[in-house]
Specification:
With 447 residues, this protein is α/β, with parallel strands linked by helices. The chain is built from 19 helices and 14 strands. α12 packs antiparallel against α13.
Length: 447
């Protein structure tokens, strides 16, 4: 099929490359001339494992093209996807739909013949109705069907998620779109990937409800981890104990410094605002947003406490800056609030991330960047593991001990075992796990 993808950011580029790999003829459109020029030169603007090779292979085959010329790409397409950004709107937290609506108007002016227009961007309930209205008002003669097809891609595993999805959700109000969308996803449908057809508004809400539920699950275990610290329980064992219940499941039960990234923060906030607009408040999601925001700075205070209550004039070494491993995405990363809390308290920050340093420079200031984890540790007074990149999982603790000023290790991802870190001569702090001697004292007292 002839597919045009409006927007060549994370969603548009990954989706476009994967559709091309299915054998479709895909054109990715973006108004940013520098981005399109870079893509045509094989330069990928984001870090996503496997994406560079996938784009190169399909561009070479001629199935994947990049352009700034929207009109001819839309005119030739059977299906046009809208994959532009929907960031949180300044001032009220609603999703900013200006890019979506501008794309809808541009599509209306360029479309020729029967075309399925698909909203791939994450958008609030009712956006498809407005996209359809804009197209009708702009071009009353357009023979267009508007569909919602939300994406469920995890950064760092997006290609696998696209090619082996848990489900494909298609929301439509016109049955003419059913056959077209089935053909678009035919390679996955033949492999028994669940293709779920719903109403358009239902599909839009599925995306937000899914992200909000996962965000609540993360926030729940983070609150439980605080209780574990105060009672001498171990949050990892608690998580395993409840995760083995099939009704709960083990995923998203890893205690840490809070969720971040491009999806959960803005989508939970947008869902809260939607609930308020429809006089149907979502109290659980509201609490999730509030608790998660507080937690990030609380992790900064945890580091200060580990340093003896005062970090003024001290150097804090930060391992990991991106909101999760295998991405360069710094949007709402917990490291930002943690570092700001430490800087507010007078600390000097020395940091390293395998992929996120350049992005970090655009959102944070006054950070000294190191060349690797050992360079971070050298001369630091506290070492803090913030993002669990694989290269941080088996550090040479003896080497770090030999160069760090004070052997204090704060593990905000519970990557290490307390016994091995303490055996290497460190004072070890983790999240939601008992301090060994305090736990032993409590046990003795109970006996």
């Amino acid at each position: 099929m002839r597919i045009t993808m409006i927007g060549s950011g994370y969603v548009g580029l990954v989706s476009g490359a994967c559709f091309a790999d299915f054998g479709h003829d895909v054109t990715c459109v973006d108004l940013n001339e520098q981005k399109i020029a870079a893509l045509n030169d094989g330069i990928i603007p984001i870090f996503e494992p496997g994406l560079e090779a996938l784009v190169a292979e399909n561009a070479k085959s001629g199935r994947l093209k990049f352009t700034t010329s929207l009109a001819p790409a839309v005119a030739e397409a059977d299906v046009v996807f809208i994959g532009v950004g929907t960031p949180s709107r300044r001032g009220d937290g609603h999703a900013d739909l200006s890019y979506v609506y501008a794309a809808a108007a541009d599509i209306a002016r360029a479309v020729k013949g029967f075309t399925v227009v698909v909203t791939k961007s994450t958008v609030p309930v009712g956006t498809g109705d407005e996209v359809e209205r804009i197209i009708r008002d702009t071009n009353p003669s357009a023979d267009v069907v508007v569909v919602s097809n939300p994406e469920f891609l995890r950064e760092g595993a997006a290609i696998d998620d696209f090619k082996r999805p848990d489900r494909i959700v298609v929301g439509l109000e016109d049955e003419r779109a059913r056959g077209v969308m089935t053909e678009v996803y035919r390679p996955l449908y033949l492999n028994q990937a669940p293709l779920m057809f719903t109403g358009r508004r239902t599909a839009e809400l599925i995306k937000y409800a899914g992200n909000a539920f996962l965000a609540m699950k993360i926030t729940f275990i983070n609150e439980i981890s605080d209780l574990c610290e105060r009672t001498g329980a171990d949050v990892q064992d608690v998580a395993r104990g409840i995760g083995l219940d099939g009704r709960i499941g083990s995923k998203f039960l890893n205690a840490g410094p809070g969720y971040g990234g491009s999806c959960f923060p803005k989508d939970t906030l947008a869902l809260v605002k939607t609930g308020q607009d429809y006089d149907s408040p979502l109290r659980l999601v509201e609490a999730t947003v509030e608790v998660n925001d507080r937690r990030k700075r609380a992790m900064g205070r945890k580091v200060i406490a580990a340093a003896g209550g005062n970090v003024r004039g001290k150097t804090i070494g930060i391992l990991g800056l991106t909101f999760k491993p295998n991405t360069d995405d710094m949007r709402d990363a917990p490291s930002i609030a943690i570092i700001q809390t430490l800087q507010d308290a007078g600390a000097t920050i020395r940091a390293y991330d395998p992929e996120g340093i350049e992005m970090s420079k655009s959102v944070m200031q006054n950070i000294e960047y190191a060349k690797d984890a050992y360079d971070v540790a050298a001369g630091s007074d506290v070492l803090v593991l913030v993002t669990e990149w694989n290269e941080f999982r088996s550090l040479d603790l003896a080497r770090i001990k030999s160069t760090i000023n004070e052997p204090i290790f704060v593990d905000l991802r519970n990557v290490y075992r307390r016994r091995e870190v303490e055996a290497a001569g460190f004072v070890y702090h983790s999240v939601g796990r008992p301090v060994a001697h305090e736990h032993a004292d409590k046990v003795a007292a109970a006996e």
